[in-house]
Amino acid sequence: EPLRPESPVQVVMVNVTAPATLPAGYEFEAQVNGGDPEMTVHAIVPEGGVNEGDVFQVPMEKSDRPPERMRIKAPKGRWKDSLCGCFNYGCCHPSLCCAIWCPYILMAQVMTRMRLTWLGEYSNSRSKKSTCRKVLCVVFTYVFIIVGLTVVEEFGFLKYVGSDWKYRLKDTYFPVIKTISFVFFTLWALYALCMTRESVRVRYSIRQKPYYCGCEDLCCSAFCPCLTVAQLARHTGEYETYPASCCTQTGHPRGTPRL
Q1: What is the dihedral of CA 162, 166, 168, 169, to 10 degrees?
Q2: What's the mean pLDDT in 104-111?
């Protein structure tokens, strides 16, 4: 039987309007044909970056064959579900458990899927490849400092060691160290989650709700971080098709297609 020739692939250039000020190399999904959610093109910001509202051209392939499924699909222009849809996959789903007991591990998985840095920002450097490890390092360092100093204060390991100066050091400096650690960790966690949510919104062209006065990402990250990171995980994952995992860098088993 003779081989059937492959369908030709046409490449056309389409105009894309930048949804925000973006650096060179940033990737996002742009809607085609007036916002049709079924028609999207994978856009990469050209050299020099773009400002919000700038128009630039990207290639889009057209083929007679249906495109092969190579990426996880996520809705464009809207969230996959609401902020309170955390029980959509059951009360024991791994993403929900992570969001409740260790939301920053789930945030690291979302950052890895989106190829962001440990601050939730896009970067062309190779540092984004180790984002999950950096976030875990920050979290476990903070836990080690707080738990370690609390144990020392509770059991008084330094109370009867050496001179009275060490005893005063324990009483004076340990609470200060714990407070400083708490402040820095809280600021990092708030900034990283806020930037991660903004990156997801920009990539999928999701507008902020008007009653947040332009502070939707900050409000959600500050007042309901667990619900926020759970929503980000559901939007950037595909739990209907691929199982969830608490112990991988992306929250999906190895070999799962990427965004």
Answers
A1: -170
A2: 94
